[in-house]
Amino acid sequence: MFLVNPAASSVTPRTQVVIQKALSADNQVTLAETIRRDHATRLAREAAQNEYDLVVVLGGDGTSNEAANGVAGSETALAVLPGGSTNVFARTLGLPDDPVEATGILLETIENGGPRRIGLGSVNGRYFLFHAGLGFDAAVVAEVEKRGRLKRYASHALFVYAAIDTWLRHYDRRKPAFRIRHADGTVIPNSKFGICLNTNPYTYLGSRPLNLTPDATLNRGLVMVSINSLRLLHMLSLVSGALRGSTAFHKSSFVNYKADVEEFYVEGHRPFPYQLDGDYLGEVTRLHFEYAPNILSLVVPNPSLVGLPPIKDD
């Protein structure tokens, strides 16, 4: 199945036709287009129920997330192509921004080794591919989505603007938003900003990755980063360190860092926003996080980038 979100920032009719022809050269291909939120999940689930070998997604990170939730737990594999404004997951896997060029790499990967089984994070039963954001992070995503039409033309600048605007006007920086209860009994009583990672980097600023941890890979448990300060100097230090690839902020007094996490709960001091893979999902007062190993079959062009061993030659 070639699953396309025609409304995604980088998707054009010409690109869609070129990619479909490339996929059809050696495969039987069914085209499916999304028309509303969560439609990709239903289409991908139908592909899995009908025992399709592969679902190739052309869209943004939100469409990839929906498709992953449709095929997770099945034998149907997932492949992602960059069709959105940021394309965090596709770039994390080592794909270029050009979707036609990325298609050639995917087809070569399939021919030379095929998909790999990977783990995913889960929040209240919904899977995420690369990260979940809580509190301030999700509030920024909410502000970006209010200006959705601008994402196609100024995505990275829009995110920077939204982050500054949210910090100044749209988020309570003084009061903690939630507590975190880990399965081992550890409790983080107060947090204003949380990021749970299944891969690294956390996101991209233009061509620069924001690296938060080397411990977030597709064959290990989750990494939970909890931040209890939104002071300007602390935030600037965190961002500048992430751009340099430094993880020195892990030892900061305002940061709690925990790797190889299998399960935890987030309990709100008040309703707090959250997002999965860049998709804003509203405000809640409680979330249950779990790690699901080997739940998804994924085409991985560059395994070393996400902590997977190389495919061995027969």
Summarize the structure in short:
The protein is 31% helix and 32% strand. It is an alpha+beta fold and 314 residues long. It is globular.
Outline the structure in words.
Helices cover about 30% and strands about 30% of the residues. The strands form three sheets. Strands 5, 6, 7, 8, 9, 10, 13, 14, 15 and 16 form a ten-stranded antiparallel sheet that branches. It is built from eight helices and 16 strands. The protein has helices at about 15-25, 40-50, 60-70, 90, 100-110, 135-145, 150-170, 230-245, and strands spanning about 1-5, 30-35, 55-60, 75-80, 115-125, 125-130, 130-135, 180, 185-190, 195, 205, 210, 220-225, 255-260, 265-275, 280-300. It folds into two domains: about 1-115 and about 300-305, Rossmann fold; about 130-295, Tumour Suppressor Smad4 (Sandwich). With about 325 residues, the chain is α+β, with helices and mostly antiparallel strands. The two termini are about 30 Å apart. The mean pLDDT is about 90. A hairpin with a 2-residue loop joins strand 11 (about 205) and strand 12 (about 210).
